[in-house]
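Protein in question quoted for reference:
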Amino acid sequence: MLKKRIIPCLDIKDGRTVKGVNFLSIRDAGDPVELAKAYVDQGADELVFLDITATLERRKTLAMLVERIASELNIPFTVGGGISTIDDVSMLIRSGADKVSINSAAVSDPGLVTAIAGKFGSQCVVVAIDTKLINNEWYVYVNGGRTPTDLVAEEWATRVEKLGAGEILLTSMNSDGTKAGFSLDITREVCRKVNIPVIASGGAGRLEHFVDLFNETGCSAALAASIFHFGEIRIPDLKTYLTNNQIKVRC
């Protein structure tokens, strides 16, 4: 069995790391370069950078900031936000990204997933799925969680796998920032439907939440933000706790 990964996420707005609740009530969480350095020192397995307003503001991801962060890293680095063309991907790879995350662009142009996979390999393509529970169904949202679609999350997940995605970043908007635990039901369902790694995001608040996630779903990684940014949980302590609970993690 592959070891589980722990991944901090830098949500970026105006060049700063921010964090909200249910994709709203955004507050500052620090300098992204300094946080990136700290996460490398703590033993994070990967780092995700999401420019959360790039698509909404119709601009490109902050390539210079990506380059500054990448220069501090020796772990895989995923970058998302405002990516809509192969040229955007090329620019971010040159800036130091190992993988790119696309959400809105994948929904509006599913062929982009296939195009990126064809040029850079499936391992480069992470499709982010922001999903919200509405009337007992999990629907996909785009534009930073502001715009609903008629896509059902687990159906969309199976489709993007066929299109060439190498990984899925699944965020529960209902749980995001609440610290009440991951949305295990939709995470479990998506993991059952696909054969590519799933990163679960949204709701981490206590050490026990990570144990529940890994024991009760087939996800390969857990992503969190505020609990790491504000020092509520340190990654070495989390990995020790998981190991003590018979969950294999990377050292």
Observations:
- The radius of gyration is 16 Å.
- Residues 32-42 form the longest helix (11 residues).
- The chain has a mean pLDDT of 91.
- The longest strand covers residues 125-134.
